[in-house]
Structure formats: C-alpha cells, structure tokens
C-alpha cells in the first residue's frame, strides 16, 4: 500500500474554472486520496504548489497538513480607505511613495532597527519550542512585507455604495499583501518534517501531504503555532497601515482584510472538519473579501455567497499562469514599462517575475466563480511597491 486510496476512490472534489494546470489537478486528486481527506475544491486561480495546489481547498477529519496550509502561514490582503483626496495620487505621489518606503520594508531578512509595537508581541510565544525560539526574529520583522508576490500599493477604490460607511464613488485606498514572514516559513518546515517522519508510507511525490493528528502532541503544537501566526500576520498589516496613515496624517474610513494559507475548524455536512485553504479565501454567506489581480489590473472587493460545494471558499487572486523562471526569461522592462504607463501605474520596485503578464486574467477568474462571490467594488493600483529584482520568493 502506498498510503493513498486507490485511483478513483478518493474523497469527492469539485473544480471551478477551465484550462487549469493539469499538474495542479493531479495534486488535488492525490490530496483527496489521503485517508484523512473528506472533501475538496479547486479554485479558478489554481496552480502548482507543494503538496496541495495553490487554490486548493481540502477538508480533513481530525488532521492538519502543514503544507496544505502553506509556507507563508496566514498570508492575507488588507485594505484601508483613507480620507485623502484622489489628487494625492498625482500631485502628492512623492509623499505617498515616501510613506510606503519609510513605513515598511521589503526583501528577505527585511527588518526594522527600531522595532514596531503591537500587542501580539506581548502574547505567550512559548506555546511551542519553535515559536519561542523565533519570537525575537518575528519582532524584528513586525511590519515588514517580505518578497515574492507581496506588495504595498496605493490606488483608486470605486464603489456603488455597497460597502459600509463609504459614499458611492471613487476613494483613495491602501492595499497590502503579505503574511507571517520567515517565522511562518520555519514553523511550516519544522512541523512538516515531523509529519513526514510520522508517515513514511507516503510515496515521494506526495510527501508534502503528510499530516498531523490533532489528537497528538505535534498536531496540537502546530495548531497553536498556526493560530499565533494568524495573529502575527494580522499585526504585520495593522502596523503597515497604521504607520502609513499616521505618516500621511490621514484618517481611516474603511478597514477590510481576509486571509488564506490557513486551516479552520468548521462544520460541514453535520460534522466538524478541518478546512485547509491554501491560496483560497473564505467565502461564507455575507463574508467580505478581497481578491487581487496584478499590479496593473483590478482588485475586487467581494461578498461571499456561501456555496457549500466549494467548502465556502473562493479564489485568493488571479493566480499565476507562468513560473518565475519562465517570466524572467520571457520579459524585459522595455516591454513591460510602457504597459504599466498606459495603465497609469507607477512602479517603485518589483522583479520581472511579478509583472502583470505572468498572471491569469482576473476578470476570467471572477467570471468562473460567479456562484461563489458577488463583486461589490473595484480597486485599481496606481503606485506599487514590491521586493526588488533578485529576491527569493517567500510565498
């Protein structure tokens, strides 16, 4: 036995979207053949990941899979609408740019010499030996943005009045995407190694699907660490947005966020299950969410429709259609820069592996999940900062 159900005998799963990467589909099939798997769903932004594909949703019984949560635990998207006039995006762009560059940091190992303050650092980080060891590093990186597809950007939010507290029309907004930095990655690696050691029966190609029983000590430790990383990732964004708003002397009119790369205890089909959403976001009935496109395409603010067959989930973004290596080989700034200019986007920094062309069309992704979420507003990027070229991705 290879530790998996026989082909065709795995847990049921459903796919949204067409022309998805066949390797991502294969990963979903393998995940649903695990003995702990109950049900799955694959979102229209799906592409290959470690173990579970990005865009994969997997419900298990009494088990958590570190790599089905992901390396960047509790990665999230946060938006704040500020009481600044839209003209600041043009005549005040220097001040906006300076606020981003002063109040967060990008890149591997990025940190603040003068540490940010947040209540999350007053919590008990000794819940596991891994989190205790990493507390100092986590504190030094509090309020930073990392690398990969992480960004901080200003842009224009347009709403018809469907968002609470906002008048219809256009508003200046700040949008960020990042997670638990190197701390979350090391927690994933530590507990995934334990899971792999506990399940030597799994074939090599699915070793990253190794799970931990929630009845066992390691599973309970990982769960505590994951939940702490959820609060830590939220604190990162809270610091970024608070300090940028204070830097600009702005008041926050609306504050929204949602996260992915996490596992939730939820009731489905009459029983409590562990729902892993790796690069997928909660979309329960009435739940507000944010689904980014790329640095030159819209981000959508949405309301979940509570579709049970998707395990109350939706896509977390446009999804890559090209690997990072392929993107760097194919594109150069001579081609990309005019495209950004035509879209009205000023790019502070980024690598070629994050240009708009490497992502799927966000409108096609949204159309494929029309039964999962209802769009309420759009955000168009105008001033974008990501890690500079050459950084190793953390996503």
Poorly predicted runs of 5 or more residues: none
Kindly state the percentage of residues in helix.
25-40%
Distance separating the two termini: 33 Å
How many individual β-strands? 17
Beta strand %: 25-35%
Shape: globular
pLDDT averaged residue by residue:
94
**What order do the SSEs take from the amino end to the carboxyl end, as H and E?**
EHEEEHEHHEEHEHEEEEEEEHHEHE
Radius of gyration: 20 Å
Number of helices: 9
Q: By helix and strand content, what is the structural category?
A: alpha+beta
- Largest β-sheet summary: 8 strands, mixed
How are the secondary structure elements laid out?
Layout: E1 13-15, H1 22-31, E2 37-47, E3 54-60, E4 63-64, H2 66-69, E5 76-82, H3 93-103, H4 129-140, E6 151-159, E7 169-178, H5 181-198, E8 212-213, H6 217-248, E9 252-259, E10 262-268, E11 271-278, E12 280-282, E13 288-291, E14 299-304, E15 313-315, H7 324-330, H8 333-342, E16 346-349, H9 362-368, E17 373-386
Parallel strand pairs: 1-2, 16-17
Antiparallel strand pairs: 2-3, 3-11, 4-8, 5-7, 5-9, 6-7, 6-17, 10-11, 12-15, 13-14, 14-17
Report on the architecture of this protein:
With 395 residues, the chain is of the alpha+beta class. Helix content is 28%, strand content 27%. The protein contains 9 helices and 17 strands. The chain has helices at residues 22-31, 66-69, 93-103, 129-140, 181-198, 217-248, 324-330, 333-342, 362-368, and strands at 13-15, 37-47, 54-60, 63-64, 76-82, 151-159, 169-178, 212-213, 252-259, 262-268, 271-278, 280-282, 288-291, 299-304, 313-315, 346-349, 373-386. Strands 5, 6, 7, 9, 13, 14, 16 and 17 form an 8-stranded mixed β-sheet that branches. A hairpin with a 6-residue loop joins β2 and β3 (54-60).
